[in-house]
Automatic annotation (TrEMBL):
Residues 124-218 form the OmpR/PhoB-type domain. The keyword Cell inner membrane does not apply. Residues 2-116 form the Response regulatory domain. Gene3D superfamilies: 3.40.50.2300, 6.10.250.690, Winged helix-like DNA-binding domain superfamily/Winged helix DNA-binding domain. GO terms for cellular component: cytosol; protein-DNA complex. It comes from the Bacteria. It comes from Hyphomicrobium nitrativorans NL23. This is Transcriptional regulator. It holds the Pfam family Trans_reg_C.
């Protein structure tokens, strides 16, 4: 899962990005409104954490432009503007949630998990498909209820496929949402991760649709 963090205060930006990455997400940082608008308009993110008081373009203006241009990723507003009129304005502009500063990082992570789950149609923190399941709160992968020892990258792959279960996910989409900007980002690296996972969860749980991508499905298609 890939998250855009839009925050111009260095300490908050670092703390939020570090906490999100420790929770299994890949992050990209923007420190002003124009950069944020450009990244959100040209790249795909599973969620945006958006500050309002930004240089060069206000956060609300960024959000309104995204929504006017049809960008539908969930947006969590993170700001010192905590009065209810500002909250209403943010929600009316297209935000999905609102967290006022100062905040607990644990609450931020919980809200991020919930927004991403809801955006992909899942209400429970445990997402299942046949014998395979993940617990998004504890970053656990399970087969028939038994926890598996997986790497952070393997967890991200299972999590992305389960959030989008029953949909064939193209390799390019998986690569974009799994890897950091400095990581290996090619189809061979992705295939190697899938191969390792199949040895742990079973050969048929992650299915390959030749020429299309990968899918975790609830039943035969």
């Amino acid at each position: 899962m890939r998250i855009l963090v839009v925050e111009d205060e260095p300490t908050i930006a670092t703390n939020v990005s570090t906490a999100l990455e420790a929770s299994g997400y890949q992050t990209r940082l923007a420190t002003d409104g124009e950069e944020a608008w450009f990244l959100g308009d040209t790249e795909d993110f599973d969620l945006v954490v958006l500050d309002l008081g930004l240089p060069r373009m206000d956060g609300l203006a960024v959000l309104k432009r995204w929504r006017a241009e049809g960008r539908q990723m969930p947006v969590l507003i993170l700001t010192a503007r905590g009065a209810w009129p500002e909250r209403v304005e943010g929600i009316d502009a297209g935000a999905d949630d609102y967290l006022a500063k100062p905040f607990r990082i644990e609450e931020l992570i919980a809200r991020v998990r919930a927004l991403i789950r809801r955006s992909t149609g899942h209400g429970s923190p445990v997402i299942e498909s046949g014998p395979l399941a993940i617990d998004t709160r504890q970053m656990r992968v399970m087969i028939n209820g038994a926890s598996l020892n997986v790497s952070p990258l393997e967890y991200r792959l299972v999590a992305y496929l389960l959030h989008h279960k029953n949909r064939v996910v193209p390799p390019g989409e998986l690569i974009e949402h799994l890897y950091g900007d400095d990581d290996a980002r090619d189809a061979n690296a992705l295939e190697a991760v899938v191969t390792r996972l199949r040895k742990k969860i079973g050969a048929d749980v992650i299915q390959t649709r030749r020429g299309f991508g990968y899918v975790v499905a609830d039943g035969p298609e």
